Amino acid sequence: MKRYKVQITDRALSDMEEIYNYIAEQLQVPETAMEQYNRIADAIETLDAFPERIKLMETEEGRVLELRQMPVDKFSVFFHVREGRVIITNVLFSSSDIAKRLRDS
């Protein structure tokens, strides 16, 4: 089976830290924050095998950028598949204005 190298951009790491900090500090449940962080990280790790199982986004921007969106609980992991690599670009709260947040990043 072909394996892909998974790379997480600084932006995506920052997104994950923001998620962790919000849950740990604003909601004051650090245990839940760590569990959520780990669930997202574990889901990202699965992309080393057959990342194409996640379909391309149906928006025009998504198609142009060849961006894929993988749901993880109430969050979405966005990534490209390029030249044997999976590049994680963003991790966002699924109910946020995703189109705007992707344009701004």
Provide a descriptive summary of the structure in words:
By secondary structure, this protein is an alpha+beta fold. The protein has four helices and four strands. Strands 1-4-3-2 form a four-stranded mixed beta sheet. Strand 3 and strand 4 form a beta hairpin. The longest helix has 17 residues. It is globular and about 40 Å long. It starts with a strand and ends with a helix.
- State the helicity in percent bands: 40-55%
- Structural class, please? alpha+beta
* Tally of distinct domains: 1
CATH architecture label name: 2-Layer Sandwich
Q: What is the succession of H and E elements?
A: EHHHEEEH
Q: Name the CATH superfamily assignment.
A: RelE-like
Quickly count the helices. Answer: 4
What is shown here, in short?
The chain is an alpha+beta fold. The chain has four helices and four strands; from the N terminus they run βαααβββα.
SSE layout and pairing:
Blueprint (H helix, E strand, L loop, with lengths): L4 E4 L1 H17 L3 H16 L14 H6 L2 E5 L2 E8 L2 E9 L4 H7 L1
Parallel strand pairs: 1-4
Antiparallel strand pairs: 2-3, 3-4
Notable characteristics:
105 residues; alpha+beta; YaeB-like fold; four-stranded mixed sheet; 4 helices; 4 strands; 44% helix
